Every structure is written in C-alpha cells, then in structure tokens.
Amino acid sequence: TCQWSCQKLELLTHHYEIRLCTCMCGGDRVDQLSDALTVLEEGTVIIHCNFSTMSNNPDLFWYQQHPQQPPQYILHMDSYNTYNSPAFSKEHFSSTLSMVNKTVTLKVSAVELRDSAVYYCALRP
User: Which domain holds residue 65?
Assistant: First the structure.
C-alpha cells in the first residue's frame, strides 16, 4: 500500500493553488521537502523530492493532475537522461537527479495559470 502526502503551492498574483504530492510504497520512498511553496505568475519554481531505494538506477517520474482529470506524465529521469512527454516542453518543465544526495527536482519555468495542478513525484526502482 502507498501513503500519499500533499503540499500546497500558491500563485500570488491570482491566488491559484498547486498541490504537490509524494508517495511511500514498501521500502522505496519519495518525500516532498517543502510544506508549501509560493511563486508569482511568470516566475520559476523548483520542487524538491528526496527518495530512498536500494536500486542503483531508479527511474524518477513527475506527473501533473488537474481537477477531475487523470494524472498526466510530465517526464522521467534515470541516471543518464531526462525523457519529457511531448505535451510538456523541456523549456517549461525540466528536472535534475542526484544519486549521491538521492534528490530529484522539477523546475517549472515561466509559471502560468495552466500550471495550477497537483504534482506527483514517483519512483520506480
């Protein structure tokens, strides 16, 4: 079974809300580092997740979910590459992975209203 944890992100100019969610399943785990983040429209936000796994080459995923919609795959990373969904440009959504620090980030550049959503960080060992 998985345990989900969600955090809130507000866009100050229009009071939009983005929720950031993470999950723990079995011995593998991802954790959101911030309780809440604030960003201005057109600003940049970096969402941090810590992860724990016994795998030497895990895949880390980011998803975005709008109300009453299924989660949409943004991108995933392994130790070598980042793979963006065609619907989510590398200029707008990018990520970094540190196997040493066991952290993964999602950077959203030029934040827009359409970025108001729930964000999920996920791990595949």
Answer: 2-124
Total domains in the chain come to 1
Rounded Cα gap, residues 86 and 101, in angstroms: 29
Please choose, from the candidates 11, 4, 102, the residue with its C-alpha nearest in 3D space to the C-alpha of residue 49: 102
Q: Give the integer Cα–Cα distance in Å for 23 and 17.
A: 20
Which pair of tokens denotes residue 60? 């880390």
pTM of the model: 0.77
Helix (H, G, I), strand (E, B) or coil at 120: strand
CATH of the domain at 119: 2.60.40.10
pLDDT in tens, 53-111: 888 889 999 999 898 999 999 999 998 899 999 999 999 999 999 999 999 999 999 99
Task: Report the alpha-carbon distance of residue 72 to residue 66 in Å, rounded.
Answer: 9
* CA–CA gap between residue 44 and residue 14 (Å, rounded): 16
Q: Which tokens in the block code for residue 27?
A: 């011995």
Q: Which two tokens stand for residue 107?
A: 């950077």
Residue 74 in tokens: 């943004």
